[in-house]
Amino acid sequence: MSADSPAVPGAGKPVAVFENDQAGVDAVDVYEITARLEASGVSDRTARKRHGAKDVFDYAHSLVQVRAVTRVADNQESWVSRDELLEAVRRGIVLILGAILGGLTATVMAANTREVLIAGIGAWIIGQSVSGIVWSHASDGQVHRGVARGTGATILIMLVLACCMLISLAIPGRDGSLAGLVMAWVGYSCVVSMLIILGRSWYLLRILAVAVPIVALALLLGHGAATVIVLSVAVLVLAAVTLALVRHLRASSERRLFGRGGWGAAVAPAAQAAFLAAALSLALTRLPDWEGTALVVATVVAAASTDPALVLMRQRLIWSSKRTPLLRNAARNARTLTMAISAAIVVISASASMIVVVFLVDDSRTATTVLVAAAFSSLATTATTLAAFGLPGGGVLFAGGACLSAGTWIGAGNMPGLLVAVAFLCAGLGVLLMHVSDPRTYA
Prior knowledge:
Elements: H1 30-39, H2 44-51, H3 56-75, H4 82-109, H5 113-138, H6 143-170, H7 177-197, H8 201-221, H9 226-251, H10 267-286, H11 289-321, H12 327-360, H13 366-388, H14 392-412, H15 414-435
Helix pairs in contact: 1-3, 2-3, 4-5, 4-7, 4-8, 4-9, 4-11, 5-6, 5-7, 5-10, 6-7, 7-9, 8-9, 10-11, 10-13, 10-14, 11-12, 11-13, 12-13, 12-15, 13-14, 13-15, 14-15
C-alpha cells in the first residue's frame, strides 16, 4: 500500500465489497483495486491458489485492464450529461413556479405577511424532512420503499395539521385560514419532493406552467371571482400532484407506508432548513416589507440556480477522477476544481440575488438589501453543497452559520455580520475541499 492510497473511505462509510472481476471498475489506481480485493476477503494465498498471481497486489495489476476498458467506454461521452443537467434545470424551474403559486395563493388566504411566512417556512422544513426520509432509502437502492415511507410520514403530518385546523375552527374568532394554508402548502411540498425524486419534473412543470399564469392573470386583472379562481387552481394542482403519487404507489411493489428505519434521516435536512429559515426571518425583521419581499424572491432564485451548478460540479469531478491515474493527482485536481466551481456557484447565486433585488427595490438603501441577499444565498449554497456531497452535519453547521451571521447583523451592524458570513463561507469551502480529496465521495 502506498502513502497516497486510501485505507478507509470518506464520511466513515465501510469499504464496499466488490466481485473480484469488477474490483477495477471506477478505481483510481492499482492500490485502490488492491484495497478493494483485500476488503472482499482476497488474501495472498487466495490470489496464488485461485488466480495464479504471486499476491493480491499482482492480482490487482491484472484487473487494471478491466478498469481501462471501462474508462475507454466512458471517454466516448461528454463530461456533462445533458439529460441530468436538463433535469436539474427543470427542478429549479419547478421550485420557482411552486413558490410563485404558493405565494399568490397565500395572498388571498392569509391575513398578513406573517402568516404567509409561517406557511412557507413550515412547508419548506417539513418538505425537506420528508425528502430526507425518501433519500435515506433511495441511497440504498430502495426508491420505492423510500417513497412509501415518505408517503406514510406525509399522512401522519397531514393528520396532525388537520387536527390543528379543526381546533382553530372551534376557537371563537378564528377562521382557520392559516391552518388551511399551512396544510395545503405542506401537503404540496411533501408530495412534490417525492415526485421530483421519482423523476417526474416534466409532469410537474407542465402543470405549473398552466396554473401559474392563470392565477397571476386573475389577480392582475382584479377579476371579481379572482379568489375563487386562485383557490380552485391551487386545489386542482394539489389534486393533480397527489394523484400522480397515488398512481405510483398503486403500481409499486412496496405497499407498506409505515415502518421502522429512515426517520433519523429527517433530522439533518429539517435542521438545515430550520436554521436557514431562522436566518431569513431575522433578516426580514430589519428590512421594510417591499425589500423583504425582494429578498425572499432572490433567495428562491438563488436556490433554484444552485441545483444545476451542483450537477455540473459533481459530473466534472467524476470526469476528472476517471482520467487521473494516481490518487494524489486526483485529490489535487478535485481540490482545484472544487475551488473554481464552488466560487462559481457562490457568484451565480449571489448575482441572482443581487439582480432580483436591484430590479425590485427602487430605493437608496438597495445596497443593504443586496449585501444581505448575497451573504445569505452564499451561506445557504455552502450548506446545500456540503449536504449534497455527503456531509449532512456540515450542512446543518453552516446553515447555523447563516443564522448566526443574520443575528450578528441585527445586533452589531453590517460589517460584523458580513465578517461572520465570510468566515463561515471560507470554513465551509475548506471542509468541502478536504472531503472531495477522496474520489469515492462523489463517484
